[in-house]
Amino acid sequence: MMKLNTSLQSLSHSKCCTLAGSLNGRRSKPSRISCAIAAPPAEEVKMRVKRNENFGKLQAGYLFPEIARRRRAHQEKHPDAKIISLGIGDTTEPIPKSIAEAMQQAAAGMATLEGYSGYGAEQGKGELREALCQRFYSHVGRKPNEIFVSDGSKCDIGRLQMMFGADTTVAVQDPSYPVYVDSSVIMGMTGEYDEGSKGFGKLQYMVCRPENDFFPDLSKVQATDLIFFCNPNNPTGAAATRKQLEELVAFARKNGAILVYDAAYAIYIADSDLPQTIFEIPGAEECAMETCSFSKYAGFTGVRLGWTVVPEQLKFADGSPVIADFNRIMTTIFNGASVIAQAGGLAALQDEGFREMSDLVAFYRENAAILRKTFVDLGFSVYGGENAPYIWVGFPGKPSWDVFAEILEKCNIVTTPGSGFGPAGEGFVRASAFGHREDILEAVERFKKEFGKQ
Ligand SMILES: Cc1ncc(COP(=O)(O)O)c(C=O)c1O
């Protein structure tokens, strides 16, 4: 047996399993146990690969895994508790019928000679780029070739960072969607984390609080190369006015900065006076790129489909077009979005699909209105929830993680602590409207019961 073990160690995984399956001369089903026999080599491996030191600067892992950890701990402590999540902004309702059917057909087609397709264009199907342009951008002068279809907006935010070097300077809204900060940290753009200010030394935090109507005082913001701006905002739920966006575009133009405009929730804008895309602002085509997603439009968080618009007029300091480098990124490290997901996206932009998608958005908007009214009636300071699926609730003077813990303990409801989105999020929690209606109504009852008598 000892001898056999030694020889097994030098075999590859598959050979090892197969041999063990015929050990006693009979053909038997290969067993996994044989692989466990192989002991690790006696000598310790000495790695030469250095860790990217920027990873060490990332703070407390990613916000949502930490929330999940605390939720699990609470569930273990209270096994019978029915926890409701208003935490992570993940969709819960089924994908609308005509959109799901288009994906079913595309998937079935892949099993036929006529319907099969392999790699497609890395930039996305021409038909889908045309449809996106027609629905959302042709009225503001954008063209299909400027739209890059992808596997999601988060992935695009990560990928686009590769166009810039570590010496690029960055500004973010504070609070903001964590991916802008974390991807900038990984790229080495932010400098060190400072415990005192709870921020990164080289990052410009554009404070957005009730006092400034959640729009940064740009006179206090130093010029940077990149400006990440999310509108409607995750987490505050604020949607910028035309005048505010004009100010932002003027600021970016004056400083020669690139505005990375995240419009992942644009479809939630109900007020027709508010811009739906940054390209409604004249001059934005020379200073902005916009990323967006089907995730919160059509329940595609699991399907994965998004897009990024890079105008031909957007240039680097040396005059070269940003679109050329973005195209290089997409063709080099991305291989095109799933053809099945793209069939769904295309269906979502046809009249029937668009109607269904709008109904889905309206449903989540109603959830937001229900939550917002509840917090208002309970006397809290409440923001957002009117042009965005997030409600931002103020608990002045209280640390957000304490509020998070109190709500979890008293109501068995998961929220998101505002401080997880940046230093200016302290004292707030975010409630997401992406739940089932019965859960939203149940959550409302629990809030009323626990906070109604204060
Ligand atoms: C502001 C913002 N941008 C982008 C994304 C990511 O979208 P996707 O699912 O397309 O990666 C999210 C998801 O929550 C988001 O809140």
From TrEMBL:
GO terms for biological process: systemic acquired resistance, salicylic acid mediated signaling pathway. InterPro entries: Aminotransferase_I/II_large (IPR004839), DapL/ALD1 (IPR019942), PyrdxlP-dep_Trfase (IPR015424), PyrdxlP-dep_Trfase_major (IPR015421), PyrdxlP-dep_Trfase_small (IPR015422). The keyword Ion transport does not apply. Keywords: Aminotransferase, Pyridoxal phosphate, Transferase. Gene3D superfamilies: Aspartate Aminotransferase, domain 1 (3.90.1150.10), Type I PLP-dependent aspartate aminotransferase-like (Major domain) (3.40.640.10). GO terms for molecular function: pyridoxal phosphate binding; transaminase activity. The keyword Metal-binding does not apply. Residues 82-447 form the Aminotransferase class I/classII large domain. Its cofactor is pyridoxal 5'-phosphate. Belongs to the class-I pyridoxal-phosphate-dependent aminotransferase family. LL-diaminopimelate aminotransferase subfamily. This is LL-diaminopimelate aminotransferase, chloroplastic.
